[in-house]
């Protein structure tokens, strides 16, 4: 007697929407298992959850924002969720399929420190030109403050926020070149525990 298959889903071929090609691409659980650091069982569970939340097979920015709002009910998470979504939406199509979603999640939860540093750089390099400017860092800090529920236009808090921005930017840009490239970012993150600790993404390290 042969043993039953592990799960009927094992045989399922995932149909992933991809907006740049006319037909959905078929991806097997094997593909996803090879590409990510998740077990097949974890992939199956996440796929079920993904399909329940996003029946059309892709997650849109609005849906992403709704999920963030549930986690941060006391703040305005919309702006921060927008920045995070940007790092998931690698083709800038406005929607993320399960494969891309899983790949980023794998980086954030199980990736190496280097992978995570790369991700945080992408998050802060808003226009994707390979350099983080003061303005971009300010945008991200602002979105984080909103996420944490800080009220706008509080002179004392605004002053502190400005100081925090200056201090942080200078720690990455000690020679005052006016921007932070990936090398400077990596060096700053790896040598400054305070900054690393401010990134929740590094907290999942084993
Ligand atoms: Ca930039």
From TrEMBL:
Keywords: Calcium, Metal-binding, Repeat
Family matches, as Gene3D superfamilies: EF-hand (1.10.238.10)
Origin: domain of life: Eukaryota
Pfam families linked to this entry: EF-hand_7, EF-hand_8
Annotated EF-hand domain residues: 76-111, 112-147
CDD domains: EFh (cd00051)
UniProt cross-references to PANTHER family, sorted A to Z: CALCIUM BINDING PROTEINS, NEUROCALCIN HOMOLOG-LIKE PROTEIN
Name of this chain's protein: Kv channel-interacting protein 1
Species the sequence originates in: Bactrocera dorsalis (Oriental fruit fly)
């Amino acid at each position: 007697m042969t043993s039953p298959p592990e799960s009927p889903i094992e045989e399922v071929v995932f149909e992933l929407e991809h907006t740049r090609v006319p037909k959905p691409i078929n991806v097997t659980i094997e593909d996803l298992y090879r590409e990510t650091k998740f077990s097949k069982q974890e992939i199956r569970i996440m796929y079920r959850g993904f399909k329940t939340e996003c029946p059309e097979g892709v997650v849109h920015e609005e849906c992403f924002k709704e999920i963030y709002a549930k986690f941060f009910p006391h703040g305005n998470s919309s702006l921060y969720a927008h920045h995070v979504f940007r790092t998931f939406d690698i083709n800038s199509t406005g929607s993320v399929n399960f494969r891309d979603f899983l790949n980023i999640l794998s980086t954030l939860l199980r990736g190496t420190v280097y992978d995570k540093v790369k991700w945080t750089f992408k998050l802060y390099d808003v226009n994707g030109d390979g350099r983080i400017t003061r303005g971009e860092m300010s945008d991200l800090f602002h979105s984080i403050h909103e996420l944490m529920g800080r009220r706008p236009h509080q002179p004392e808090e605004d002053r502190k926020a400005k100081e925090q921005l200056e201090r942080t930017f200078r720690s990455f840009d000690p020679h005052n070149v006016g921007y932070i490239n990936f090398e400077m970012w990596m060096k700053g993150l790896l040598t400054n525990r305070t900054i690393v600790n401010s990134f929740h993404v590094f907290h999942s390290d084993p």
